[in-house]
Amino acid sequence: MTEIWELYKHGQWEVPFLTFSIYLFVVASFILYLIIVASRSSKIKKERLSKEYGAAIDKVLSAVIFEDVPYAEIIKDKNFQVLFDTSFFREVLMDSLINLHKNYEGVYAQKLEQFYKDSSLVKVSFRKLKSLKWEVKCKGITELAEFNIKEAFAKTIVYSKARNKTLKIVALNACIKLQGAKSIKYLVDHSDPIDDWMQLNIIGAFKKHDLGDREGIEHLLESQNTTVITLGLKLIKELKLTQKVPHVAQLAAHSTNTIIKYEAQSILQTLTV
Question: Could you give the CA distance from residue 140 to residue 128 in angstroms, rounded to a whole number?
């Protein structure tokens, strides 16, 4: 410290400072270059492996869907065993499974669901729910909901009250897919505000999953949370649930909230015209 102070006092600090700055800049630039090269190399390697894995996965899933080959038979292949032990292969396999499941229905979809369970990929999805990263939780919830794992509902409903908005939306949508109208009772007691964006996502989930059973939606109008009441009114309007008109009329007649009363009257007019 004394030497530095002497250099500063006598005005001899400029040259050492500039020299140090140049060295620091060169070292920082070199480290940044190495990071960029490593990141790029990793990305190229993943893209190459993804193509290689994709060919093997297509062959396996084709056998599962069209040839009724069970997972127990597939896992006997030593090459598949080695690949399946790598996390990136399982990630590519999961993505392929989800894409196929979205495009197939009936027996084919059931075969993919069985493969998801038999291969223990369902356990991988459940482990993702324990992650500290919200985006990993979202991925796990989406996977479990896609393959209709009803056992995941209890854990998923917990995340419907998460602080992270995206996680909250993903969880609510998953609950609707897993339990349909039965998930409404949890929405009735939802204490957090459900903003317009979340409401649009929930309405979209009801439309997307084409739930035949709409029983219980009117209970949303009984909630103490005004945003939940608004959601209930929008659902009744968007799904054209004319059988719920008496409940909307009762809300319009007895609600003390001016905004809710106006919304109920407006929707009542739309449904009765």
Answer: 5
